[in-house]
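Your task
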Amino acid sequence: MLDPKLLRENTEALRAMLKNRKYEFPLDDLIDLDNRRRKLIVRVEELRRKKNLSALAISNKVKNQADPSLDREDMGIIGKELINLEKELRDLEDRFRRSMMTLPNVIDKSVPIGKDETENVVLRYTGTIRDLDFALKDHVDIANSLDLLDLERAAKIAGARFYFLKNELVRLNLALVNYALDFLVERGYILTQPPYLIRKEAMDGAVIFSDLKDMIYKIEDEDMYLIGTSEHSLAAMHMNEILGGKTLPLRYASTSPCFRKEAGAHGKDTKGIFRVHQFEKVEQFVYCKPEQSEQQHRQILAISEEFYRTLGIPYRTVLLCSADLGKTSSKTFDIEAWMPVQGSYREIVSCSNCADFQARRLNVRFRDKTNEKTQYVHTLNGTLVATERTIACIMENYQTSKGTIEVPTVLQDYMSGVKEIRRI
């Protein structure tokens, strides 16, 4: 959520932000609602003061044995009006908050203005694309030939976009998770494993819920949802808390499954495990002071880039333009991995700085000393590895002319020394 002062003090900046995001939002209606709300607050406070003065006058007259009936009559009139206006104010406050909760985050000044994803900026290319001089197979064909994947039986029991991993692919999946956790622990992260369910209040603080509600799985008759990513759980972890400034930055590593109904654009990634309804992910999440925010963002990105360099997967680093930016994010870098069969780079990592947007919604603050005024923290998140997508990348980039898959060197110890995946 944005600071409500922006509505009054930086209205044109908000209009520009919405225009640059290509997002239709009833800003004038929200401004009008805010004006009515603030005028009503003044009137309610005035009536409360009058009511208190009337109560004092009645008390004094009773003490002095004077007739308080006219004051009681006035107090009754004031009281009735106050009840009605307080009810109206509660309604306006609720409508104002709900509207504010759908207003996107401001855009960082360094974000390029663009109309769509074609105007994202490629910052660098990293890694060497292998010269595979044989007929390439996509990850599904490779997996089927080596008995590593069963999509048909998974669809039979759970529907499309689910899967059975089999044999060495199960071990490769766990190897990626364990390697990723060790990778982050070595860089000072605190390990966490969150609940796999989340309440709407927590979810609504982490994201603009109306945008996500059709993408996540709800538990029937309960105020609970399966998590779409551990980012949301970690964002709400310190909800309604005041953190000690000396503890910041707090840097969490989280491992969890992720559940999502959405599966991308129609007809895209319909084959295999690149885009599915259930997958595992190791996430980075940081709480920090505002002045630490930019440096922490670049550090998250640097760690994710280093991780993919160690895996030997070619990638490019992209700065998202304004229209491709998520609504909670102020600035986002993506890492896109090379998929040789498609002959293109595909998103595999997203690293976002949400500034104080989530912290305001979740009321997460900090202060350095007990007598100081609190400030909102900044929150940042970044994928380290979404394992199913990365498995697809490994299979396609490390396939051999023999129909086998070489195991990246850094994962071999996590797979009991297996160097090459063959059919059992």
DSSP finds 14 helices and 17 strands in the chain. The chain has two domains: 5-100, 117-421.
